[in-house]
Specification:
The protein is an alpha/beta fold. It has a single domain, classed as TIM Barrel (Alpha-Beta Barrel), CATH 3.20.20. It has 13 helices and twelve strands. It is globular and about 50 Å long.
């Protein structure tokens, strides 16, 4: 293990108030997003979209690293330039998703275990030789009735730790991503409880596997209520003649109702309780949040707490950066420049959020 290389890579990825762009969607996931917008689900369409991203002018001003998929890391622009060279020329460090996906956890209905450890040592060596300098592995934790089970948490934490040790052996900084999903009807408090339990177990396993914490980046979820959490009710008094009537109104989705300040407070406090100061940086996933809310919540964490945080707090967003650009592009060359403008705008917004300087007017 080259400890100096790992520390330096992590330092560069977290420097200058930049963040990371996750563009590591698997082919099936990418195809599903294309289908919703009427974009052909072909190899060429995927390549063209990824070229749109990597060739976006000014992207390197806000993005320090890009997480790629196996197909993407081997692709070229239309004129034959490898994506890896395009990224390097923009000052963006290439990374690679190395897990093979979440599969059903045997004897645990409704829970998943992430696979991909078989042959991982050899794959990491190949990716390093290709030019990748960091990697990503995502574990998926579901909150539900009686879920998550302790065995699910421990199995995923152990796999994350083994992956991280293999990455460091190969010279790659591991992004450790234990994602507690937004799916479900759970409350903000329930998400906090589960997230803290998951993170405690992850760091126990990382220490057991002798992972150098100074050479990792944590990619957690923000603490949020579930998407199906019952909507809050507001009561409004309506006058009718001399009588007063109370009318119950249901106006906003739980995601919108979750106060930006409350999310920032509970997330930072939970990280203080569970993440060692030796970890150089925390790069949040967006996890299905809207682009604007993901930026606002990241901004509030840095605006309120930056001076007190032992780690850099940044972003590693996928849809929260990409989605506006994808909706503009729609697979049409005529929309390419407008889509790139939207992409770099969202990246710049998140850099401002990392500084604690983002406002909703920027959106």
């Amino acid at each position: 293990m080259n400890a100096q290389l790992l520390r330096e890579t992590a330092r560069i990825l977290l420097a200058d108030a930049k963040g990371l762009l996750a563009m590591d969607e698997s082919n099936p996931t990418c195809n599903r997003r294309f289908a919703k917008l009427g974009i052909p689900q072909t190899v060429e369409a995927r390549r063209a979209y990824r070229e749109l991203i990597v060739t976006t002018p000014g992207l390197g001003e806000s993005i320090s690293g890009a997480i790629l998929y196996d197909e993407t890391i081997r692709e070229q622009t239309k004129d034959g330039t490898p994506f890896l060279k395009v990224l390097a020329d923009a000052g963006i460090i290439p990374g690679i998703k190395v897990d093979t996906g979440a599969k059903d956890l045997a004897a645990h209905p409704g829970e998943k275990i992430t696979e991909g450890l078989d042959g991982l040592r050899e794959r990491l060596q190949e990716y390093f030789q290709m030019g990748a300098r960091f990697a990503k592995w995502r574990a998926v934790i579901v909150i539900g009735d009686g879920l998550p089970s302790r065995s699910c948490i421990e199995a995923n934490a152990h796999a994350l730790a083994r992956y991280a040790a293999l990455c460091q052996e190969a010279g790659l900084v591991p992004m450790v991503e234990p994602e507690v999903l937004m799916d479900g009807a759970h409350s903000l408090e329930r998400c906090r409880q589960v997230t803290e339990e998951v993170l405690r177990n992850v760091f126990i396993q990382l220490n057991c596997q002798r992972v150098m914490l100074e050479g990792i980046i944590l990619k957690p979820n923000m603490i949020l209520p579930g998407l199906a959490c019952p909507r809050p009710q507001e009561v409004k008094e309506v006058a009718a003649g001399e009588q007063q009537f109370q009318v119950k109104l249901i106006d906003r989705q739980p995601e919108e109702e979750a106060d930006v300040n409350a999310v920032a407070d509970v997330t930072v406090k939970s990280l203080w309780r569970t993440v060692p100061a030796a970890v150089p940086g925390i790069a949040f996933l967006s996890g299905g949040q809207s682009a604007e809310l993901a930026s606002a919540r990241l901004n509030m964490m840095n605006h309120r707490y930056k001076a007190q945080l032992p780690w850099a707090v940044t972003f590693s967003f996928a849809r929260a950066i990409q989605q506006p650009a994808l909706e503009i592009w729609q697979g049409k060359d005529a929309n390419l420049l407008a889509a790139q403008k939207a992409l770099v705008h969202r990246a710049h917004c998140n850099r401002d959020a990392r500084r604690g300087e983002y406002t909703s007017a920027m959106a």
